[in-house]
Design a protein that fits this description.
Helix content: 10-25%
Structural class: alpha+beta
Strand order of the largest sheet: 1-2-3-4-9-8-7-6
Number of helices: 7
Radius of gyration: 18 Å
Largest sheet: 8 strands, antiparallel, barrel
Length: 257
């Protein structure tokens, strides 16, 4: 089977492209570092976190969405790889796998710290985001639980200038980063966009966001970003054998916000 078929086999098997507007896609030959988050109102509302690597979008379903608070540990369930074309998808998935409304919540680039393949393999992927909404250092930490059929990870914010314990980005930004539409508007009109449907993303910027916007978006950061500054509670959550992940879809683990 060609490489594109292997990498996207699970993605294609789950979908009927005669009915869904989702792209069939293909593995990209050129290397890139795109990043995006799609807010997905399916059986349970969640945020699909995607990082471009090896010609596809490595994907995680973050149940409560990203947090800017380093103390929060957001459950991120690993899902199948998606084609890069999915990064442009916004609309309605009909009845079937993933049925619901999809909104492009953030877009930008990501910059791994170290070898990303090694980070995925070892379960500690550290990186810097340069998005329209999320910026700064983050980490995806894999949780180990014997007998668990899913890959459960934790999405954690690094302690840096973009960290913010007071503002919830999922509440601050409730519209599409591309079309400016709300989930309700997309659910009503689908992929089409009328000029009267556009909603202004006028949420006030936090001081940290203002400071970040003034800085260059170059990945060449000061040496303080070279070492991950994860809160100690993440380590304890990783090591604790008592941490449990419930069996319900996208369920939260004990102690994981």
């Amino acid at each position: 089977m060609p490489r594109s078929g292997r990498a996207l086999k699970a993605y294609r098997e789950k979908r009927d492209f005669r009915h869904t507007p989702e792209p069939r896609g293909a593995v990209a030959k050129a290397k890139g570092n795109s990043y995006l988050i799609q807010k997905h109102d399916a059986r349970r509302l969640h945020y699909d976190f995607r990082l471009e690597l090896d010609g596809v979008l490595k994907s995680w379903a973050v149940t409560r969405g990203p947090s800017l608070n380093p103390r929060d540990k957001r459950l991120a369930v690993r899902t199948e790889d998606h084609p890069l074309q999915y990064g442009e998808f916004e609309g309605i998935i009909p009845k079937g796998y993933g049925a619901g409304t999809v909104m492009l919540w953030d877009q930008g680039t990501w910059h791994p710290k170290g070898d990303p393949q090694e980070g995925l393999r070892k379960g500690a992927l550290k990186f810097v985001l340069r998005g329209k909404r999320l910026n700064g250092g983050f980490a995806l930490i894999r949780m180990r639980k014997k007998g668990d059929k899913r890959e459960n990870w934790l999405l954690v914010k690094e302690r840096d200038d973009e960290a913010d314990e007071k503002h919830d980005p999922t509440k601050q930004w409730a519209t599409s980063v591309v079309s400016g539409r709300s989930l309700d508007t997309i659910a009503k009109h689908g992929a089409t966009l009328d000029k009267n449907d556009r909603v202004s993303d006028a949420a006030p910027m936090t001081p940290a966001r203002k400071k970040s916007a003034q800085n260059s978006h170059s990945c060449r950061r000061s040496s303080r970003l070279s070492a991950m500054s994860l809160p100690p509670v993440v380590t304890s959550c990783m090591r604790s054998s008592s941490t449990a992940i419930a069996s319900s879809p996208w369920s939260e683990g004990t102690g994981c916000a």
